[in-house]
């Protein structure tokens, strides 16, 4: 029996063992950083106002609103993936795409690089490619399902972008292995 496969009872054909859903392992740290930045801004603004004697309840409310807006801007999306899906959740919305039904993958350059995935059901999601590079489990789910989409003939646009991303993930994984093992020059 090969690794990752098991035989179904009564059928005799190998069944693919599904990997458990996985998420961005750095999300909590980034969320704490966003919370600390918002709290530091609020504390600094309140301290300055209190020091000058200009602190009132409405100014305190204004500074709290400003800190919450900063938190909303800095709050990272929570990306997770499982067999056949990839999801991104922010405080205001949740997006999900069927990765086994991908029709398009594009890399959009701008202020920050974004990976745009579209599925056959009309789902669309934008994520930072660094999330996939930093989380091999997320990349594994996406790559396996993208191969399924390509084999079905659905994925017609974006195989080059996926190949480039795969090379980047492999390069970063290799660097990490060398760094952990002490073989990094």
Layout of SSEs?
Blueprint: E1 5-7, E2 14-16, E3 22-23, H1 27-52, H2 57-74, E4 78-82, E5 85-89, E6 94-97, E7 102-108, E8 114-119, E9 124-127, H3 129-134, H4 136-152, H5 159-181
Antiparallel strand pairs: 1-2, 3-4, 4-5, 5-6, 7-8, 8-9
Helix pairs in contact: 1-2, 4-5
Transmembrane segments: 34-55
Region (Disordered): 1-24
Protein name: PH domain-containing protein
Count up the domains.
2
Helix content: 40-55%
What is the succession of H and E elements?
EEEHHEEEEEEHHH
Largest sheet: 4 strands, antiparallel
Radius of gyration in whole Å, from Cα?
22 Å
Class per helix and strand makeup: alpha+beta
Quaternary structure: single chain
SS field, number of helical segments: 5
Task: Compute the number of strand runs.
Answer: 9
Amino-to-carboxy terminus distance:
40 Å
Beta content = 15-25%
How is the largest sheet built, in terms of strand order? 3-4-5-6
Round the mean pLDDT to the nearest integer and report it. Answer: 85
User: What low-confidence regions span 5 or more consecutive residues with pLDDT below 50?
Assistant: 1-15
- The shape is elongated
Region (Disordered): 1-24
Organism: Streptomyces andamanensis
Transmembrane segments: 34-55
Keywords: Membrane, Transmembrane, Transmembrane helix
């Amino acid at each position: 029996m090969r690794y990752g496969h098991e035989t179904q009872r009564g059928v005799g054909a190998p069944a693919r063992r599904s990997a458990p859903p996985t998420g961005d392992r750095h999300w909590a740290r980034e969320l704490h950083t966003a919370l600390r930045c918002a709290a530091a801004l609020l504390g600094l603004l309140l301290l300055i106002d209190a020091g000058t004697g200009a602190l009132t309840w409405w100014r305190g409310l204004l500074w709290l609103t400003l800190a919450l807006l900063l938190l909303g801007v800095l709050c990272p999306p929570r990306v997770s993936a499982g067999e056949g899906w990839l999801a991104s959740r922010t405080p205001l919305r949740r997006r999900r795409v069927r990765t086994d039904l991908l029709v398009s993958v594009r890399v959009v350059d701008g202020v920050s690089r974004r990976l745009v995935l579209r599925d056959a059901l009309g789902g669309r999601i934008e994520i930072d490619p660094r999330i996939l590079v930093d989380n091999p489990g997320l990349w594994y789910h996406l790559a396996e399902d993208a191969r399924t989409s390509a084999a079905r003939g659905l994925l017609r646009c974006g195989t080059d972008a996926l190949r480039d991303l795969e090379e980047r993930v492999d390069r970063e994984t290799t660097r990490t292995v060398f760094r952990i093992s002490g073989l990094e020059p």
